[in-house]
Amino acid sequence: MNPTDFGEPSDLSSRATMSLLLLLLLGLSQALPLQEDGGKEEKAPDTVDITTRILRSNNGSNEILLEGDLLAPRTRNAMMCYTQNCFWKKNSSSLVTVPFTVSSEFTSSEKQLIVNAMQGFHSKTCIRFVPRKNENDYISVENKEGCFSELGKVGGSQVLSLNRQGCLYYGIIQHEVNHALGFQHEQTRSDRDNYVTINWDNIDPQMAYNFAKQVTNNQNTPYDYSSIMHYGRTIGQRQGLSSWDIIRINKLYGC
């Protein structure tokens, strides 16, 4: 397979564009996306992808965001999550329970959409998102400036931001939730150079770190152009977890 290209300039503002340039990506998908029921609640045209929505929402954010939507680590020296300390734990029933709260700033229908997207993980994986009772470690879904998450479990209350004006889409919610489970963007995985080419000439050198490969556990799965974690206008998708996304979650958490 010929490598595809990253780094085509876009018409977004310079901050969003340099944070993560919109991608010109070609090639066939290696995994078909799975349409979840919650995906029907998206109203925007199919031509509007996750990349565009996230970068538009995050433009002007005061947060330090890496790769466009990953909140800079508070408790780790680098943006890595491949030790057991940053994964959510199984309970006695072999289910991985992830407590969460949802800000009162969201309407009841918005809260339901968030819950629906989280429940989209339940039928295909051993992940279970449960309303927080008194757990110390939990995800706090908040209406901040943009769509972003921390990577993996960081301990205590960790913010997952879903701005009400631009982030409340089924695919975006699942994208950010998957970050909180410990998954990075597909195009930063350790073997990405076999599948895509970074057009470094199109990238501000000061922003090049956003395109650095990460030390990732690929779990013997193929590069997935249709992953919910793949940025791009012409590949990746917004409807929900792909079949390989599901397999990776199950392998990582021993489902």
UniProtKB/TrEMBL annotation:
One Gene Ontology cellular component: zymogen granule
Catalytic residues of the enzyme: E176
GO molecular function ontology, one term from the record: metalloendopeptidase activity
Cross-referenced SMART domains: ZnMc (SM00235)
Enzyme class: hydrolase
Cleaved signal peptide residues: 1-31
Cofactor binding comment, as recorded: Binds 1 zinc ion per subunit.
Residues the record lists as binding Zn(2+): H175, H179, H185
EC number: 3.4.24.-
BP terms from Gene Ontology: proteolysis
Compartments where located: Zymogen granule
InterPro entries: MetalloPept_cat_dom_sf, Peptidase_M12A, Peptidase_Metallo
Record keywords: Cytoplasmic vesicle, Disulfide bond, Glycoprotein, Hydrolase, Metal-binding, Metalloprotease, Protease, Signal, Zinc, Zymogen
Peptidase M12A domain: residues covered: 77-255
Entries under PROSITE patterns matching the protein: ASTACIN (PS51864)
Cofactor(s) named in the record: Zn(2+)
Protein's UniProt name: Metalloendopeptidase
